[in-house]
Amino acid sequence: MNKTILLLTTLVLVSFNLSSLNLGSMSVNSTNEEKLSASIKVKSAQTINPFDIKIENSKNTFIENSNFIDINEIKIEVKQISGGQAILLSTNAPVKGDQYDFNLKISLSGVTRTIRYFGFIPKNKATNQAAQIKPVESLSSCLELIDPADRLECYDKSLSRKKQENDKELVAREVKNIQPKRKVVQENLFGRRGGDLEEVIAETQSIVIPNELSNVIAKVSRYAADKYILTLKNGQKWRVLEPTRKGLFKKDQTVSISKGLFGSYDLNIQNLNKKYRVKRED
Length: 282
Known about the structure:
This protein is of the alpha+beta class and 282 residues long. The chain folds into 2 domains: 2-122, Immunoglobulin-like (Sandwich); 187-280. The chain contains 5 helices and 15 strands. The longest helix has 18 residues, at 2-19.
């Protein structure tokens, strides 16, 4: 009974250690025709040693007869870093291929976990001078590199340029020259609601929507019995929502429109002490 309990306890601990094993993506800090330099961040409850790791060719290759790097040339190292460990992959000689597709196997306490890594090795700019140099990886992948010198080189390669002595000076000058944008009053947004308004605001953040609009009626048209649509000289169309007498609204008449309760709008004719509920049409 005691042996059975001990065996079950051991299996549970092994299972827990493997389930807590977390491997990040592989960051490649080299191009083809260069010595391979890549790293993989690892978070594990157990310490991983190089002899716990094995690399094998993938059996699920998407592209047949591709120019893959030779996995037999890859050296494996493990380095302790803040918050975990890092698996460092390298070669003694420049790699010949421009793609990689392999399974990385980690064996801990007799149990093996397999993770597949596949992708492209960035091309050396000397092999394609006419084409624009592509970044090694996204800038975020450079953060996963362990060595500060490798990380800096990754940034330079990602930006496809050589490091400049006045980089800090240029950054400081750009920040200093940034001026706050002047807010612009946009009458055209007055009366817009819901999605229409949000769509326009999403395009620019340097606008201010007025609380009231004053304009002149350019055209009066009827859409129902004793109900009218007013076209203003600024091009806006406003529907009067309540019945009104014929001739109340006239061409060249000055009106003002203000915000009401719960997203509504009220129209007032100049020199008349009465408001009419309106809704913008366009």
